[in-house]
Amino acid sequence: xxxxxxxxxxxxxxxxxxxxxxxxxxxxxxxxxxxxxxxxxxxxxxxxxxxxxxxxxxxxxxxxxxxxxxxxxxxxxxxxxxxxxxxxxxxxxxxxxxxxxxxxxxxxxxxxxxxxxxxxxxxxxxxxxxxxxxxxxxxxxxxxxxxxxxxxxxxxxxxxxxxxxxxxxxxxxxxxxxxxxxxxxxxxxxxxxxxxxxxxxxxxxxxxxxxxxxxxx
Length: 217
Fold this sequence. Notes:
This protein has 217 residues and is of the alpha+beta class. The protein contains four helices and twelve strands.
């Protein structure tokens, strides 16, 4: 059984990228929870750090603790509702960068494998014929000696979708200490998954917004 040791990074404490009266954009570091869990030690998270400066901040979506990258928070209930609806209706565009083990058979393609909860091993997820539709587009950016750098564009937003999809096709994400075998975990100092960009419609102005954060793997 894996023991979760939570030691969130403190430098920078909060990487703000954009703020207005309706939204806040941050670049979340790997190792920081998006929102607090039940245990007291999880109180230090992206949401609580933002709320120290902006008490009106509201969580809209999540990135896994080990995943870094662009996140949007709302500053009022109207913006929260608008943004959550955009995520639910798949009107946002998300791009991730990842480094996976091995080489893929095709340089680009689509992974369409339904995902459901692994009831025997919560909170893990698994591919199952009875699961919910899950779709991930991928494109090779660089083929390396024993790994591949990929760009991922998920259409759906299932829990752990990218990890589960890449594991299912035989190319687990390097550093994935939740799903991958130990030699894959040991191959990287962190999970090699980064939310590089996020696009959505501004909840007040209706303007198309695009935010990005570069990460070198």
